[in-house]
Amino acid sequence: DGGITQSPKYLFRKEGQNVTLSCEQNLNHDAMYWYRQDPGQGLRLIYYSQIVNDFQKGDIAEGYSVSREKKESFPLTVTSAQKNPTAFYLCASSILGLEETQYFGPGTRLLVL
Amino acid sequence: AQSVSQHNHHVILSEAASLELGCNYSYGGTVNLFWYVQYPGQHLQLLLKYFSGDPLVKGIKGFEAEFIKSKFSFNLRKPSVQWSDTAEYFCAVILLSYNTDKLIFGTGTRLQVFP
User: Can you tell me the distance from the alpha carbon of B82 to that of A71, in angstroms, rounded to the nearest whole number?
Assistant: First the structure.
């Protein structure tokens, strides 16, 4: 089936630890996105990439890093610099760019121990 | 600053009641407008969208939305809700500009429908 997969479903982070969230898509979409969803705040854009080997910061990029070495993959690293990482993280993709319909993955819930 | 407002944070309705969820944005330029829905335990998915043309757009499951440019609004409506419409609804606006497009999501409205 075509779609977006995110792993793991739940992730626990210790203080001072970097963790990486996986996002893979087999939709042949050029653009991919990472959002953070917090109660009462909706979705906030962390990073997005419209083409391989290129990405742009969203509204809340501090404490996060990404890479886009392959079209299908857009991993997100939550670094120790992110002081409040507990949230639900959603990955999405779209055919071309930011102006189009986005297709979302199931999400990863990150919890801090 | 550019923003998207969903004033209804939590809506509770009985089945067969009519629904209208508000979405307003602050931006004077061209926009693409979306409503996404997140059913319990499911992925966020597109409900409907407006890019251009007829400002009244119809989406899945009997939902519709009307773009009123003069009011900077894109309210979501359904004449008769069902229990299965219980979900969280997000309005999203893409601010189109010559330099850089910007995507903003609203804070979401949680809808609970009781039988």
Answer: 40
The dihedral through the CA atoms of A50, A63, B2, B59 has a sign that is positive
Once rounded to an integer, what is the mean pLDDT over residues A62-81? 96
SS3 B84: helix
Instruction: Say yes or no for a CB contact (<8 Å) between B107 and A41.
Output: yes
Q: Return the structure tokens found at B15.
A: 């089945």
Structure confidence at residue B98 as a pLDDT band (50, 70, 90): low
Chosen for mutation from A56, A101, A103 (greatest number of chain B CBs closer than 10 Å) is: A101
Distance CA A71, CA A28 (A): 7
**Closest Cβ–Cβ partner in A42, A103, A106 for B108:** A42
At B86 the three-state DSSP class reads coil
Residue type at A32 in one-letter notation:
M
What is the per-residue pLDDT across B20-75, written as a single tens digit (0 to 9) for each?
Answer: 999 999 988 889 999 999 999 888 999 999 999 999 999 999 999 999 999 999 99
B44 touches chain A (CB under 8 A): yes
